[in-house]
Sequence to fold (318 residues):
Amino acid sequence: METSQKASSLINENGIRMDGRRLDELRPTKIEVGILGNADGSAYIEQGKNKILAAVYGPREVHPRHLALPDRALLRCRYHMAPFSVEERKSPAPSRREMELSKVIREALEPSVFVEYYPRTSIDIFMEVLQADGGTRCASITVASLALADAGIPLRDLVAACASGKVEGHLVLDLDDAEDKKGEADVPLAFMPNFNAITLLQMDGMLSLEEFEQAVNLAIKGCKQMYELQKETLRMKYVAVKEEVAEE
Amino acid sequence: MTYSMVAANLKQKQIAQALSRGKRLDERGLTDYREIRIERGIVERAEGSARVHLGKTEVMVGVKIDKGEP
Fold:
């Protein structure tokens, strides 16, 4: 009985993907907060094979000083992929893609932070991808937002991100690397559920207008699921603190 | 004296007192290691990987193998 899929097909006749997921199913995700002792806030995510660490330092003095803004905090983001995170060793020097993603992630997180509360300071966010398998910018936004919350920085809302796209004619959620590379389109999206606001929306590939609208709605659904996971992770952190305090 | 100098001075005295009892600040003996934890294969994508905890220090290493010219 032939149970394996053809080598060339990513989605089989029953609408099941290579890793056994349905078209609208997120990869198994595990998130932790507060894992780095030196950072003001930190979080770690494993989404499928993605492994990403985020650390937040701040609000703190801006160095170099001339970059300080008089009325608000300066948000600085660094998205970096470890050389061993991808199939072919990646040079540790920042690539154009990493610089673009750093900017785009900063713009996705900025609307959520009350930067006006901390003039003349900087809030530095570092995201290190330890293993990459597609959708790292979305996972990075999700984990960076949690690290900001872990640092105690006042936020309007958490930002959750998820990518949808089109693979072999089907609309799918949370593409992994193989689906991203071979698919027809990839739509990463970041969302603040309390405001019903999209803070990141990119598209790579080709989609008709209707398909694009469907992809956006699907990605928003994925974001809402990530959001519940983020809230639960934060809640667990305070349950642990409560238990510690109760023991004393 | 600035705050940091006062704190550093006090810490110095604390360390000296602990040493006179043959201990370090975290109650370790003079020749005791901090807790060591080693894990292998933490990044499946890399040909080799490991993570080592030495007390609170944590180091993660990945090894990639490829043919090519140096």
Remarks:
- DSSP finds four helices and ten strands in chain A.
